[in-house]
Design a protein that fits this description.
Layout lengths: L2 H11 L3 E6 L14 E2 L2 E2 H12 L4 E5 L3 H9 L19 H14 L6 E5 L8 H10 L5 E7 L8 E4 L2 E4 L16 E3 L3 E5 H7 L7 E5 L11 H15 L6
Parallel strand pairs: 1-4, 1-5, 6-11
Antiparallel strand pairs: 2-3, 5-10, 6-9, 6-10, 7-8
Helix pairs in contact: 2-5
């Protein structure tokens, strides 16, 4: 049997899967955020290249309302079969709203995907291997989320009331940090999910949700110019061959 036929059989034996990169236009805090240059390339290109290189998706698509973003997506090998609706391009539309629109649009065209992975366009630390691992984990759970431990115990968090510092959880004031339960937060990079579970619960945040624990050096929210600068420093650190601790 030749390599092509072996690859074809492997593809046909696994559930069909789509990668959905969500990249609307109109970013206010960082203009043109999704296609802005990040260490020499449009930031969205890192998500696209990882999805394409993973080899686990039957389709890699970009959901956007902006032709300029669509052009960049096509340049890097993704497809843009339709533009996002006005309803899901607004400031108050959720990621789940976008996923639902995409999956239903494909269904209306006769294309059904048993699994999907929603990847953010500003996630340069996403790799092909991470996406491959996430999709493989869907054999064991209905959904997969990358998470990272809080760098500081949230149980020690403070709030400001009337210009004064107040401890949110004073009961943990004298508890040793090593005795506090480790808490994690969403990396904001991607979500892998079985399609039937998503439509059942209208979210990727289902009960049967597996974590992928990420090192802090490979996680960075990018909402401000300072975030952007930190992300580039982390990315260059990793690119220079320095493994995450």
């Amino acid at each position: 049997m030749n390599t092509f036929s072996t690859s074809l059989e492997a593809s046909e034996s696994r559930p069909k899967a789509v990668a959905i990169i969500t990249a609307r236009g109109g970013s206010k805090r960082i203009p043109h955020k999704n296609v802005r240059d990040f260490c020499g390339k449009p930031i969205i290109s890192y998500s696209l290249r990882a999805a394409l290189a993973s080899g686990v998706f039957d389709e890699v698509m970009v959901s956007t309302d902006e032709e300029a973003i669509a052009d960049v997506a096509r340049e890097y090998g993704a497809c843009v079969p339709f533009l996002r609706s006005a309803e899901t391009a607004g400031d108050y539309a959720s990621t789940d709203d976008v996923i639902r629109e995409v999956l239903l649009a494909y269904e209306s065209r006769g294309q059904h995907f048993q699994r999907f992975c929603c990847i953010y366009p500003t996630a340069p630390f996403v790799t092909a291997q991470k996406l491959k691992t996430a999709m493989e984990l869907l054999d064991k759970a209905e959904s997969v989320m990358p998470v990272v431990p809080f760098s500081y115990p949230p149980q020690r968090g403070i709030i400001l009331e009337n210009g004064r510092v107040r401890r949110k959880y004073p009961e943990f004031l004298t508890t040793r940090s090593q005795d506090l339960e480790t808490m994690y937060h969403d990396c904001g990079q991607f979500y892998a999910c079985r399609t039937d579970a998503f439509f059942r619960d209208s979210t990727t945040d289902v009960d049967d949700l597996l974590p992928m624990i990420m090192p802090e050096m490979e996680v960075q929210d990018i909402d401000t110019e300072e975030d952007w600068a930190i992300a580039e420093l982390k990315f260059l650190h990793m690119k220079d061959g320095n493994p995450a601790p």
